[in-house]
Design brief:
alpha/beta; TIM Barrel; eight-stranded parallel beta sheet; 16 strands; globular
Length: 376
């Protein structure tokens, strides 16, 4: 199989949800899949041993952050990001476009690339599509992303059109740079669909990206503050015109309810910082809904976080103890709650895949939401 190729296995008889397999240089990823985010090469607070126990198939790191610290030459000298962080399994790197987009006060977008200042020390740097490709080649992840201009929300039509067209130009340059050496033998390059909330711009982006031709396609700019109904409408419109035989990756989306809704519309891959970020704030996802473990109601609750979870936090600790850790600001809670949330998300994806294999997607979705919202 070609590196980055996606194999169709089964489709729901009632919607666009797909079961498949993605082939990368370090293994096979069953889709739909959720990727825990390790922005700086580390999933915050979670040792690799626990990540492997969670059955994570692939994790994500960010080129912008690794470029600034420790520097991509150090990562390359270590033998690539998987050896540097001891993961030794599939990884994906974001191009850095979203992080640079977030630096709107200290960056300047030009036709040839983006001039920006480091958030660490204020030093000046320049990322072009060619530079992003070289940085990601040095980092060595299995899947790398085109350098794009992430359109903010809200954005007027003219801004969104210019941004989308710039991303298309950069995508062509990324592909040309990517294939200048034998990187394609071990890495897969995905294009990124932009166009904000405008259906015609999204369609143009999809059609133009297919002409450039990538092994997989990501959908960007749908986790930047727009209402959920806009995201659903865009997916309803563009998934039917994306290639049936290639992976579809929705960037930055990962609430449990979003996974069901977006898989239903034909998405294969997700990533999001929510499991660890929310865990650090005391919010826990359970099969019976979201809870905030710092609340007083859990001070004398000696049950596990989730009776249907077998993660280290649920097997070894009670809500009362975790409530104590959060209130006492003992750093152990950061690890335990993050681990639980990651287990929850990955178990949820396993449940979704099983429902597709049995052609029971909507039955399982209904059961999930019935239990998930039972606390309301």
């Amino acid at each position: 199989m070609e590196i980055g190729s996606w194999q169709f296995l089964k489709k729901s008889s009632k919607c666009r949800a797909r079961l498949g397999r993605l082939y990368v240089s370090r293994g096979i990823i069953d889709t739909p899949a959720f990727m825990p985010v390790g922005t700086q090469g580390s999933v915050k607070g979670v040792p690799m041993e626990f990540l492997k126990e969670s059955k994570a198939q692939i994790i994500l790191a960010n080129s912008y952050h690794l470029y600034l610290r420790p520097g991509t030459q150090i990562v390359k000298k270590a033998g690539g990001i998987q050896k540097f962080n001891s993961w030794n399994k599939p990884m994906l790197t974001d191009s850095g476009g979203f992080q640079i987009f977030s630096l709107n006060d200290i960056r300047q977008i030009k036709e040839d690339g983006v001039q920006f200042k480091s958030h660490i020390d204020g030093s000046s740097h320049f990322f072009s599509p060619e530079k992003s490709m070289q940085v990601q080649k040095d980092i060595g992840a299995d899947i790398i992303m085109c350098f794009d201009d992430c359109t903010p929300y809200p954005a007027d039509y003219a801004y969104a059109k210019n941004s989308m067209e710039l991303s298309l130009k950069w995508a062509a340059r990324c592909k040309e740079e990517f294939y200048k050496d034998d990187s394609f033998k071990r890495q897969a390059l995905f294009g990124i669909i932009q166009g904000s909330i405008y259906d015609d711009l999204r369609k143009i982006s999809v059609e133009s990206m297919q002409k450039i031709d990538f092994v997989g396609y990501a959908i960007g700019g749908l986790s930047v503050g727009e209402p959920k109904e806009y995201m659903h409408r865009i997916l309803d419109n563009i998934c039917p015109i994306l290639p049936d035989n290639k992976a579809r990756y929705l960037m930055g989306v990962g609430m449990p309810e979003d996974l069901w809704e977006c898989v239903e519309r034909g998405i294969d891959m997700f990533d999001c910082v929510i499991p660890t970020r929310n865990g650090r704030n005391g919010q826990v996802f359970t099969s019976e809904g979201k809870i905030n473990i710092r609340n007083a109601e859990y001070r004398e609750d000696f049950s596990p976080l989730d009776p249907n979870c077998d993660c280290p936090a649920c097997k070894g600790y009670t809500k009362a103890y975790l409530n104590h850790l959060v209130r006492a600001q003992e750093t152990l809670y950061l690890t335990l709650l993050s681990i639980h949330n990651i287990f929850f998300m990955l178990n949820l994806m396993e449940k979704i895949r099983a429902s597709l294999a049995n052609d029971a997607f909507f039955e399982e979705k209904t059961n999930f939401f019935k239990n998930y919202y039972s606390r309301i």
